Amino acid sequence: MARAYCAGCRIAILSEASAKDLGHLGLAIVPLQDPWALRQLHLCARDFSALTPHAGLLAQQLMEPNVAIP
Fold first, then answer.
1. Per the confidence metrics, is the pTM higher than 0.70?
2. Which residues of 1-28 are buried (b: 16+ CB within 10 A; e: fewer)?
3. In the structure, what pLDDT confidence band is assigned to residue 49 with cuts at 50, 70 and 90?
4. Which DSSP letter does residue 59 get?
5. Contact at 8 Å (CB) between 2 and 14?
């Protein structure tokens, strides 16, 4: 999408991180508020039981419901 913008499309929907990376171009960046613009993230692994101990602990913490991160 960023390349499309730079190639002349002049409008793009980007992740917040991508938009910030292009901030040096002087873009007007407007956060979208519509429900379709919200992301749902997923934790993925080929085999959760084969993760390293540290990765396994991280995955376990992220999969616990209602975990508040300070």
1. no
2. ebeeeeeeeeeeeeeeeebeebeeeeee
3. very high
4. H
5. yes
